[in-house]
């Protein structure tokens, strides 16, 4: 797998020192962590997105959920229609800073077996998503 480049790279950008900010996808659909799994799946389908950025009541990014994760939860025997996204995420998940190098982020994603990683600013607000190509 290799990283997807969603934004054109500047001619001055050195590939060795490329940052996450150079390679991330623009900010995608964001939802509140009190949303239920069913509603999140509907939002995902409507947005034709494979993942959603999840934010808390203060607008801070708490993680990212994928369609595969939500479908697996919905299809499990423990599922109820009261399960909220905050119940799935627990503590704030792994995130990247816009100044993290692409190489560092790719290494962390492979180590944690992540297909996508939220990119947040210094205040914790979502800036976008870094995704691995399939």
Automatic annotation (TrEMBL):
Key word Magnesium present = no
Enumerate the Pfam families for this protein.
Answer: CBS
Q: By its UniProt entry, which InterPro entries does this protein fall under?
A: CBS_dom, CBS_dom_sf, Diverse_CBS-Domain
The protein's UniProt keywords, in alphabetical order, are: CBS domain
Q: Could you tell me which residue ranges the CBS domain spans?
A: 27-70, 95-130
Instruction: Give yes or no: UniProt keyword Secreted.
Output: no
Q: Which PANTHER family does the annotation name?
A: CBS DOMAIN-CONTAINING PROTEIN CBSX3, MITOCHONDRIAL, REGULATORY PROTEIN
Name the record gives this protein: CBS domain-containing protein
- The organism encoding this protein is Streptomyces gardneri
């Amino acid at each position: 797998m290799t990283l997807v480049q969603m934004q054109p790279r500047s001619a001055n950008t050195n590939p060795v020192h490329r940052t996450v900010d150079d390679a991330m996808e623009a900010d995608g659909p964001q939802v509140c962590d009190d949303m239920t799994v069913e509603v999140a799946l509907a939002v995902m389908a409507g947005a034709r997105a494979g993942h959603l950025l999840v934010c808390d009541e203060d607008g801070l990014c708490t993680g990212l959920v994928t369609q595969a994760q939500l479908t697996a939860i919905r299809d499990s025997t423990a599922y109820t229609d009261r399960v909220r996204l905050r119940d799935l995420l627990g503590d704030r998940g792994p995130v990247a800073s816009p100044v993290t190098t692409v190489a560092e982020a790719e290494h962390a994603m492979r180590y944690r077996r992540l297909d996508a990683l939220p990119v947040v600013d210094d205040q914790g607000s979502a800036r976008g998503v870094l995704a691995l190509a399939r």
